Amino acid sequence: MLSPHSKGLFRRAISQGGVALSPWALQKKPMALTKKIARKVGCWRRDEDVMIECLKTSDPVKLTMAGKIDVFLILGKGTVMDLIEFSPVIDGDFIPDEPSKLFHNAAKFDFMAGVNSMDGHMFAGVDVPSINKKTANTTVKSVKEKGGAAVESSFSVYSSNWGSHPDPAVVKKTVADIETDFLFLVPTQIALQLHANNASGARTFSYLFSMKTRIPGFPRWVQAEHAEDLQYLFGKPFSMPLIYFPRHRNLSKYMIAYWTNFARTGNPSTGESSVPALWPAFTKNHRVYLDINHKISKSSVSSDLRSYYVSTGLRPTAPALSAENLRATQLLLCGPLKQ
Fold first, then answer.
1. Which of 73, 282, 273, 321 has the alpha carbon at shortest distance from 196?
2. DSSP annotation string for 64-103
3. Could you tell me which residue ranges the Carboxylesterase type B domain spans (predicted)?
């Protein structure tokens, strides 16, 4: 949608659980990754042109496997920012500039985007495993020196309503909220704003998927996990009815209706499929969103989704907020979580 080469190829797009502005969406060190992959598949050469020619003739399966997740990430010693290696690069052609500067190319495309209420929980569980352990001794301990001013500022924003003796569950949920905001929600809201600001005859729609997780074993505070919306969008409650309840089928029916209407007409509320409530457009002056769960009604329409955190929190566009600073902020909030 953001590429100048996409004009005329389609009319609208939907982004779920991530956008081009997400901090993990671009490979910022493509040559370093190229050399890393080349070493793994036996193509490393001092001459970069020769090395690239070798990679072009390599087995695609071997190339793919060479970019698999590092074991240190699985063990919780890395950060989730290291998760995706094979991601797009700014090549000066298909992606000619930073994605935030390319939304004029999407002026004619209708755009729907949203996140799950706890998209970042599973990734926070990788970065700080103890948030999912009931017996973890959670303490708030200062590690501000790990991240400097950016971390201190983020800590102030996210801990402002804790009080002097915060509930350990609140502290753990805050870690998941940080990861959700930084990796998903904030960049999605910024993308929606940029699309609405640049739109010329196109419409913008925002949503928050908030159906509580069905995954067993997680703490009670865990909400909608990353990718949990997909089972409802693709009708799994109907194809596997014995493991779902009527409320899940209602949600599935609502999502299928909204999504197919948008695909056909550019408006999720208009089309062949009836919907439980009208979904207003997101505009420059009215940042409206639909809260999606099994009880959708007129009251499900709200505005300014986590606007305080979007404007003052962990903005992925801020250079100081690196993967290390994200990790440091989490540690600052949780302290050394005992296993």
1. 282
2. HHHTPPPHHHHTTSS-GGGS--S-----SSSS-S-GGG-G
3. 1-297
pLDDT at position 165: 82
Contacts of 41 (CB under 8 A, 6+ apart): 55, 58, 59, 62, 63, 66
The length of the chain in residues reads 339
Indicate the SS3 state at residue 205: strand
Specify the pLDDT at position 166.
Answer: 82
CATH numbers and ranges of domains, the chain: 4-26+88-334 (3.40.50.1820)
Strands 110-116, 204-209: parallel, antiparallel or unpaired by DSSP? parallel
Residue 248's identity, in one-letter code, is H
Question: pLDDT tens digit string along 268-325?
Answer: 999 999 999 999 999 999 999 999 999 999 999 999 999 988 887 555 444 444 555 5
Tally of CB atoms within 10 A around 34:
18
Which amino acid, 3? S
Q: In what order do the strands lie in the sheet with 204-209?
A: 12-16, 110-116, 204-209, 288-292, 301-303
Distance, first Cα to last Cα, the chain: 44
pLDDT of 152 above 90:
no
- pLDDT category at 164 given cuts 50, 70, 90 is confident
The answer on pLDDT for 261 being more than 50 is yes
Alpha-carbon separation of residue 278 from 114, 189, 229, 297, 298 (angstroms): 17, 20, 20, 8, 7
Q: How far is CA 262 from the centre of its chain?
A: 21
- Provide the 3-class DSSP secondary structure of residue 301: strand
